[in-house]
Structure formats: C-alpha cells, structure tokens
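New to this. Please check this record:
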Amino acid sequence: MNLATLSVSQSANQSLSIAERAQLCCQLAKQLEKAGEYEAAYEALGDFWSEPEGAPILEGIDRATEARILLRIGFLTSWLAMARQTEGGHEKAKNLITRSIEIFEELGQLQEATDARCDLAVCYWREGAFDEARIIFRDVLREIPDTSSEMKAIALVRAASVERTATRYNEALNMLNQAAPFVAAAGIDALTGVFHMNLGTMLENLGRVEQGETYRDRALIEYEAASYHFEQAGHQRHRAAVENNLGYLFYTMRNFDQAHRHLNRARRLFLDFDDIGGAAAVDETRARALLAEGRLAEAERFAQAAVKALDLGGQQSVLAEALTTHGTVLSRMGKIGRAKAALQRAIEVAQTAGDLEAAGRTHLTTIEELGQQISVDEVVANYKAALDLLEASQDQAATKRLIACAQKVIGTLNTADDRVVDVDVSVDGKSWDGFSFKQEVLDYEKAIISRALRDTGGAVTKAARLLGFHHHQSLIALINSRHKGLLGVRSAVRKRRHSIIKVGKNSSNKQAAAPLKS
C-alpha cells in the first residue's frame, strides 16, 4: 500500500463514526507496517495519535477498539524508537502494548491478547532482553493453534530471531524447522524473507566457525531468496538489512570491494527512510571491514559514529556490539585508556540489557586486545567472567576464543614475575595464603578441557582438534594423568540432533538452501 492509497482511505474515513474510523485506521496501519512503511502507518493513526511522543487520543471509542489502537501505537513506537534512536521509546512501547493486553484479557478476547504478547516479545528482543522475549514467545506458541498458519509462522520466525541473536543456534534451527510449513502456508513475502534471512545468518555463522565455503555459498543463496521476497513485498527496510548482512559476509571472506558495495546500498536504503538506527548498524559493520583492511583512522570514525547514533536509543545489545568494535579499533591504534573504557562500557551495557553472552565475548576481546597492557589480575578476572557468562553458549566461535584465551591466560601466569601484579588479592579474590601457582594453572587447564569435551558431546577426538592437539591420544594421556575427574565427561557421548529446513514449493521462485543439520 502506498501513500496515495492512504490518502484515499483517509478521505473515505470522514463519513464513518469515530469507532469505525478507529478500526479502519488500525487495519490500514497494520497493512503499512507489513510493508515496512512505518512513517505512513504513523500518519494513518493521525486522528488518534497526533505526536510520536504524545499520548493516544482515545475519547469516544469502545474498549476493544481502544486496545487495538494502543497495540498499533505501541508497536509503531518501538519501530520509530529503533529508526530514530529516541530515548525511552522501547519502554513506552512496552507499556502501551501491556495496556492493550490487559484490556483484551478483561474483554475475554484471548486471541488478540496473544497477538499483542507476540508484539511485546519483539520489543524486549530489540532491547537485548532475550530471556524475557524467550519466555513470552514460549507462552505465545503454546496458545496459538496449528490451524492459525499466519500467526504461528510469525511467532516461530520471530522466536527464531531471538535465539539467533542470542547465538542459540540449535534452538533457532529447531524453530525454523517448525516454522517452514507454516511460512509456506501463510504465503506472505515479508515473512518468508525474514525466514530466509535468519537461515542465511546462521549459515554465515557456521561458515565462520568451520571456515567452509559451502556454508557461505548457502548463506548467499538464502540472502538472495530473502532479498527477492522483500522486493516482492515492497519492504525496503528489510532489503537494507539483507544488504548489510551481505556486506558483513563479504568482509569475513575478505572481499572488501563487494563488502563496501553492499554496505553503500544498505546505508542509502536506510537513509531514504531516515532510519538512523539502521544506518548506525551499517556503520558498525563498515568499521569492522575497515579494521580488517588496516584502515584504522576510517574504522575509528565509523565506529564512533555508530556508538554516537545508538547511544540515545534503546537497542542496548546493538550498542554493546558497537562499543566493542570501537574499543577494538582504539586498541589497535594504541589508545589503550580509551579502548579499555569502551570495552568496559560495552560489558556493562550488555549485562544491563540481559545479553550475557555479548558481555562474555567482550571480556574475551579485552584479553585478546589488551592482554599485554593490563595487569595479571585483570587478565584472569576477565577470563573467569567470560567462562561464567559463556558457560551455556552454543556459539562454537566463542568456544574457540575461550580456548585461545585460556592459552593466553596460562602464558600470562607463567610470565607473572615479569608483570605488574596486585599482591593484595589472589586470582580468586582471596588472600594469598595457601595459593598454589601450579594448582591455579591446572584448574584453568581442567576448565578449558571440560568445556571442549562438553561442546563436542564427550568426543575426545573432536575435543583434541578444538584444543589444537595433533593427536587425540595426547589429550587422553593428559586427562588420565592430570584430570581423572574428567573421565566421566569423556564417556558421556551426546547424541547429535538433526534438523532439516524445508521450504514449500510455492514459497519462493529462488532456490532455497539444502537441508541444514544442527
């Protein structure tokens, strides 16, 4: 739907009662939302929402229509907060949607209450509050019958987005598996595009871990399918997101010319809609690409711009990523004090939002980038924090980084005599009484071997490969001689689960990727 159609609809509204106008405006706004035309959707609600920061105008309408208006305004408030990076927008959106849920439940309109909770979960996700979003989606998915194909598809794809962002890839793949038949039955291009974009992102992540071109090629196919469906739906914002993802993918492949071409397109599309948040995400991706090219001054400029743009909005998880990138660039430039401050703030922002894995990854970045510039105590403290925060992570890249950082920590402890050490406390925060250097090194060694065994389901050969041993017998000898307590972990072989993604024949004119195993 375009603005001309909106104008015609608004003219027709004038002959209707206020309640009828309100209902029609809600329907029109929802259609515009599906096409990504959020500014037009805001204008469609103009009679009942005159200012983005203002309160809804609800006089003279019944309670059910009031709830629908609150829901539409709440959902749009969240989108506009993300695009314009307005402070407090997501919190206001959650409050409005919660009010609509209360009214729907009071009136016994339980299906509409469930739909509203699905939108509420999205608000939590955008803030980086993944646990809250996950809990709401779990309840929503229980309440939606399988006969409601569109709503089931929307809830499953959105829930998969939460798990993908939280790097819980097994859960995300499982949800996309469940979603596939519902997405095909719904036949909604924008939704099908999000489905393919989620799958492409997970294939891209697997490609980075496994260093496999097959995964990357399949990611490109999924992104192509996503872009096709978004073009069919007229959803330019989502097309911009795909372009940003392609820019990121090509940068990881070190094809920087292609990366910058896609990032230029993404930024231009976002700015066509005055989407500050989207453009900031592109700037953060470009900063990573420039960093990889060694163009530090340019990388710092784009990273700083991304942080500045995201600072006022409520996307705390995205802000934490931008701060981590900025801190990394500053470290490479030798600006150690500023780098340390940026990384510490990134950790605090991520933890406050509830994105604990992002905080854990930034602790690892601190060791990787500043390990030689900070004290032994700080190195150890960062590693312990990362180990705790990433304990349940399904991100194989994080596991590899934990192993690499463990080696750095052990190396740091081995050379502790040449480093500045705070003698007031031990590495455990206790007194030095009874401290054993050898035992401390053994404890770290045990922790990282345990992590490798857990992430490989007890398979010693795979764990040895993760840990960098040339022969798995070396790891077996190490366990038998130093860490016999891990023998039980070794024997607990975990059965792998398989998940297959199938897309209905009518869901795309583009070829979908081959089945994916978790």
